[in-house]
TrEMBL record:
UniProt organism field: Carassius auratus
Domain STAS: start-end pairs: 462-548
CDD domains xrefs: STAS_SulP_like_sulfate_transporter
Membrane topology: Multi-pass membrane protein
Gene name tied to this protein: LOC113079758
Protein's UniProt name: Sodium-independent sulfate anion transporter
UniProt keywords, alphabetically: Anion exchange, Cell membrane, Ion transport, Lysosome, Membrane, Transmembrane, Transmembrane helix, Transport
Domain of life where this protein originates: Eukaryota
Molecular function terms from GO: antiporter activity; monoatomic anion transmembrane transporter activity; secondary active sulfate transmembrane transporter activity
Residues annotated as transmembrane: 35-53, 59-77, 84-101, 107-127, 139-162, 182-201, 222-245, 290-313, 325-344, 364-384, 391-413, 433-453
Catalytic reactions of this protein: oxalate(in) + chloride(out) = oxalate(out) + chloride(in); hydrogencarbonate(in) + chloride(out) = hydrogencarbonate(out) + chloride(in); sulfate(in) + H(+)(in) = sulfate(out) + H(+)(out)
Protein task: Sodium-independent anion exchanger mediating bicarbonate, chloride, sulfate and oxalate transport. Exhibits sodium-independent sulfate anion transporter activity that may cooperate with SLC26A2 to mediate DIDS-sensitive sulfate uptake into high endothelial venules endothelial cells (HEVEC). In the kidney, mediates chloride-bicarbonate exchange, facilitating V-ATPase-mediated acid secretion. May function as a chloride channel, playing an important role in moderating chloride homeostasis and neuronal activity in the cerebellum.
One cellular component term from this protein's GO annotations in UniProt: lysosomal membrane
């Protein structure tokens, strides 16, 4: 086998099919760990997928339809051993803003997201994600956590008729508190309490030293395992309570209700829809209605997944290929649209569980996918009795860690101006999530453009003016540079000779060269001189080609200062 791996075409094949890099080394130990991790993640995925479908405004089975394809596709095309693809809280919230609870819109959105993401991967456009800054991401995730979490309060209280828009949601939730159902409230609070206790137990067990006797370590391991699948345990217990109440004739809980049974059919995604009144909604109408979601959702899906993959790759000492990750996510969404999925991305919580349970390869995702498929095949009738309050508790506990309000303090300490895109994204996201992201990116973009257009320029005047830009010279800088030259050199009395330190300049564009030509003409008219210092070979070649009037240069700044100082003294003596 070793001689095959040395062939160039095989190396190229491995870059497109990463499974070929780890499959030859697969062994029984890896199989055992992947089975344990896949089973654990599967038990976490099923209740979360049901809950996130509620956030997206879709019937609960669509959460499971979206949860299994990623495990199979990513196993072949993914480069991270830890990450798990599926429905997430943020992606569900974003989708809810565009699909309006319509499964057809959700499936078309999935298909188009996959095509866009795959196209970006093939065109190597992953660099576009670099323009979404960390303050924008954190502002969005904090706002999304608040929006998603508060959006589930209505299910904890058993309220109906609450609008989706955040501010109206807040008003009507408090307005309708007297209508709260006692059964839902008690069950929801109990689920929240047990989820919180199990989370704290898991955290304390993970941080405590492992020097106890064997039977205590075994007991701790059992408790840690139960705490890891806490979502499944709480939902199962709540469903048992609700089922008992229903069969005895006590309708005290708001239930999930009727769900489609069995596996989703594998079929081409619908590209049109006929509504109840007989109106045909064409593919172009659907695309028009999805609008900005075709930009926001693919980018945020990729950003979330790659950020998680990079974090766990760094933690576990391996590397990922960002463009290959982009391709894997895109292909997952394309194939997911054939099984009625809505857009998916990497899940931080489930990826953490996957890593902590010792997964050795992406094959763990296949086990998770099988668990979801078995749930769809055999457990759907039981999902009728799942209380909405228990799913709401699962969602609230899942999004609470996303509300990291230490970030504003960190931004304040490092660079206070970065609070601006954070706050714009955070505040505007409560109005419309997509506008929050766009607003934050625009503000970050203007801040970046200002830094490019107005770089810091060190000005020293010891008889000869020295200008030292701390970054490159691009066309937005020309007006700023000219203003400094006129202010400190040409409009001074008497006019100063000057040195332009270009040691930080790596390239020039035509606008900069044209402005330098005009400056040199003005300098000559006033009878002073200008010398360029520290030019890199590529920049020097451009300036020599441009044939600037009176162009002079030296390798070192001190040589240029010495030369111009001598010229100034000579002119003063004359």
């Amino acid at each position: 086998m070793e001689w095959v791996t040395d062939i160039p075409w095989y190396a190229a094949l491995r870059s497109y099919f990463p499974i070929l890099t780890w499959m030859p080394r697969y062994n029984l130990t890896w199989l055992k760990m992947d089975l344990i991790a896949g089973l654990t993640v599967g038990l976490t995925t099923v209740p979360q997928a049901l809950a996130y479908a509620e956030v997206a405004g879709l019937p609960v089975q669509y959460g499971l339809y979206s949860a299994f394809m990623g495990g199979f596709i990513y196993c072949v095309f993914g480069t991270s051993k830890d990450i798990t693809l599926g429905p997430t809280a943020i992606m569900s919230l974003l989708c809810s803003a565009y699909i309006g609870g319509d499964p057809v819109f959700a499936v078309v959105l999935t298909l188009l997201c996959g095509i866009i993401q795959t196209g970006m991967a093939l065109l190597r456009l992953g660099f576009l994600l670099d323009f979404i800054s960390y303050p924008v991401i954190k502002g969005f995730t904090c706002a999304a956590a608040v929006t998603i979490g508060f959006g589930q309060v209505k299910n904890i209280l058993g309220l109906k008729g609450i609008p989706q828009q955040f501010f109206l949601q807040v008003y009507y939730t408090f307005h309708k508190i007297p209508e709260a159902r006692v059964g839902d409230l008690i069950l929801g609070l109990c689920c929240l309490f047990f989820l919180l206790m199990l989370t704290l137990m898991k955290t304390s067990l993970a941080s405590s030293p492992d020097e106890s006797p064997l039977f205590i370590r075994s007991a701790r391991g059992l408790v840690w395992s139960l705490a890891t699948v806490r979502n499944a345990l709480v939902v199962i217990a709540a469903t048992a309570v609700a089922y008992s109440a229903e069969v005895t004739g006590h309708h005290v809980f708001s239930l999930t209700g009727k769900t489609a049974q069995g596996l989703p059919p594998f079929k081409a995604p619908p590209l049109s829809e006929t509504v109840a009144n007989g109106t045909l909604i064409t593919f172009s109408d659907i695309v028009k209605d999805l609008g900005g979601g075709l930009a926001v959702i693919p980018l945020m899906g990729v950003l979330e997944s790659i950020a998680i993959a990079k974090a766990f790759a760094s933690k576990n000492n391996y590397r990922i290929d960002a463009n290959q990750e982009l391709f894997a996510i895109g292909l997952t969404n394309i194939m997911g649209s054939f099984v009625s999925a809505y857009p998916v991305t990497g899940s931080f919580g489930r990826t953490a569980v996957n890593s902590q349970t010792g997964v050795c390869s992406p094959a763990g995702g296949i086990v998770t996918g099988v668990i979801v498929l078995l749930s769809l095949a055999f457990l759907m009738p039981l999902f009728f009795y799942i209380p909405k309050a228990s799913l709401a508790a699962v969602i609230i506990c899942a999004v609470c860690p996303m509300m990291d309000f230490r970030v504003p303090l960190q931004l304040w300490r490092v660079k206070r101006l970065d609070l601006l895109p954070f706050l714009v994204t955070f505040v505007v996201s409560f109005w419309e999530v997509q506008y929050g992201i766009v607003g934050g990116v625009v503000v970050s973009g203007f801040m970046l453009l200002y830094i490019v257009a107005r770089p810091k320029v060190k000005v020293c005047d010891d008889g000869v003016l020295l200008l030292e830009p701390d970054s490159g010279l691009n066309f937005p800088v020309t007006e700023h540079l000219s203003r400094l030259v006129f202010k400190h050199a040409l409009h001074a009395s008497p006019p100063r000779c000057l040195v332009l330190d270009c040691s930080h300049v790596s390239s020039l564009d035509f606008t900069v060269v044209h402005e330098l030509t005009e400056l040199l003409k003005q300098i000559q008219l006033r009878g002073v001189s200008m010398i360029f210092a520290g030019l890199k070979p590529s920049v020097l070649k451009v300036l020599l080609t441009a044939d600037l009037p009176g162009f002079r240069h030296t390798d070192r700044v001190d040589e240029a200062l010495l030369l111009l100082t001598s010229i100034s003294h000579y002119q003063q003596q004359l």
